[in-house]
């Protein structure tokens, strides 16, 4: 089979790989959709100092059907034809983090991540431990399952870290695919969302996904705009998704406010003396647990949320170079390889 690799220097190259076979406790998943994630660009541009490279199949938003089952996998865990999402991390499976659905935080010291140290989903087939599989609700497309696996799931994870956002005023900074997911999910959870970006096209989409108000921070003073919209109180909560607007998060956060920072690289700096009286809670979030991935999918399915509309372009594997040239410009929505 052929898979997409990133040798660096903004190149996406198809390379031949053996068709994978499942070992004990493993399954082979036939890809139906493999999403393009903003973090892919660190590898594509050659700016990441860990993992990936010319010999690793890329893609960490996989979704598809069980194609083959290895020895020791019981029928109730996986059967050929099952529609599945993949929680794209696995670890020792015995530490407290793994056992609670957080293998990316494994204490065992050998976290496996597709696209970094395991083959990813930008290929027709992918082999994974059966424990990484989650059922894809019948109402959801494979594209939706791919998005929930990382981009949309990352927004959900950040919102869960913030706690109950229902009835709050929440500022979502950045309206790329993750931020737009945050706007969509937070609105469905009952928040009044103020969406912020520097691109009017993205802000128009944010309104379509449930934003109550929008602010173009390239044209307006973001602090004054949010204070005006909140009667001078500031936001109850902030979800920062861009990785470059952390200072803006602190400008708009009201007293007793909570802020979650999920965008990378995300430098942040403040002087305690200047802010301690605000009684803020500041936190980060790293994607989501396998338990929350399933909850996110069920929530989206139950409310018919328009996750598929996050994707503005679909590609085939042989369009890899063109697809990543387009995605690298970061001027449109989300892309996906469909099989």
From TrEMBL:
UniProtKB keywords: Metal-binding, Oxidoreductase, Zinc
Cofactor dependence: Zn(2+)
InterPro entries assigned to the protein according to its UniProt record, in alphabetical order: ADH-like_C, ADH-like_N, ADH_Zn_CS, ER, GroES-like_sf, NAD(P)-bd_dom_sf, Zn_alcohol_dh
Pathway field: Metabolic intermediate biosynthesis; 2-deoxystreptamine biosynthesis; 2-deoxystreptamine from D-glucose 6-phosphate: step 3/4
Cited PROSITE patterns: ADH_ZINC
Pfam family, one: ADH_zinc_N
Entry's EC annotation: 1.1.1.329
Signal peptide (from-to): none
Catalytic reactions on record: 2-deoxy-scyllo-inosamine + NADP(+) = 3-amino-2,3-dideoxy-scyllo-inosose + NADPH + H(+); 2-deoxy-scyllo-inosamine + NAD(+) = 3-amino-2,3-dideoxy-scyllo-inosose + NADH + H(+)
Top-level lineage group: Bacteria
Domain Enoyl reductase (ER): 8-337
SMART domains attached to this UniProt entry: PKS_ER
CDD domains with a match to the protein in the record: THR_DH_like
UniProt cross-references to PANTHER family, sorted A to Z: ALCOHOL DEHYDROGENASE-RELATED, L-THREONINE 3-DEHYDROGENASE
Family as reported in the entry's similarity comment: Belongs to the zinc-containing alcohol dehydrogenase family. DOIA dehydrogenase subfamily.
Role played: Catalyzes the oxidation of 2-deoxy-scyllo-inosamine (DOIA) with NAD(+) or NADP(+), forming 3-amino-2,3-dideoxy-scyllo-inosose (amino-DOI).
Annotated protein name in UniProt: 2-deoxy-scyllo-inosamine dehydrogenase
Lineage, top ranks: Bacteria, Bacillati, Actinomycetota, Actinomycetes, Kitasatosporales
């Amino acid at each position: 089979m052929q898979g997409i690799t990133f040798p660096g220097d903004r190149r996406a190259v198809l390379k031949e790989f053996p068709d994978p076979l499942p070992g004990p406790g493993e399954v082979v998943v036939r890809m139906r959709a493999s999403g393009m994630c903003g973090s892919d660009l660190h590898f594509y541009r050659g700016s990441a100092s860990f993992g990936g490279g010319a010999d690793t199949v890329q893609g960490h938003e996989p979704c598809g059907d069980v194609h083959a089952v290895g020895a020791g996998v019981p029928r109730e865990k996986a059967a050929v034809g099952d529609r599945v999402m993949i929680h794209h991390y696995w670890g020792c499976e015995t530490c407290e983090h793994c056992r609670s659905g957080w293998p990316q935080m494994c204490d065992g010291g050998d976290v496996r991540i597709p696209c970094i140290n395991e083959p990813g989903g930008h290929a027709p087939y992918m082999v994974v431990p059966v424990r990484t599989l989650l059922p894809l609700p019948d109402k959801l497309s494979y594209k939706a399952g791919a998005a929930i696996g990382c981009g949309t799931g990352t927004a959900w994870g950040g919102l869960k870290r913030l706690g109950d956002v229902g009835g709050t005023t929440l500022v979502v900074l950045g309206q790329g695919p993750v931020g737009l997911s945050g706007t969509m999910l937070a609105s469905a959870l009952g928040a009044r969302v103020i969406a912020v970006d520097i691109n009017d096209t993205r802000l128009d989409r944010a309104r379509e996904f449930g934003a109550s108000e929008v602010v173009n921070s390239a044209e307006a003073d973001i602090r004054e705009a949010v204070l005006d919209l909140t009667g001078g109180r500031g936001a109850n909560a902030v979800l920062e998704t861009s990785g470059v607007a952390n200072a803006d998060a602190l400008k708009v956060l009201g007293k007793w406010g909570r802020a979650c920072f999920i965008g990378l690289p995300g430098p942040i700096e403040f002087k305690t003396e200047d802010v301690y009286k605000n009684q803020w809670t500041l936190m980060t979030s790293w994607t989501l647990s396998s338990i929350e991935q399933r909850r996110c999918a069920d929530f989206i399915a139950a409310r018919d949320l328009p996750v598929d509309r996050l994707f503005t372009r679909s590609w085939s594997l042989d369009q890899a170079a063109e697809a990543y040239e387009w995605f690298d410009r970061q001027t449109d929505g989300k892309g996906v390889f469909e099989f």
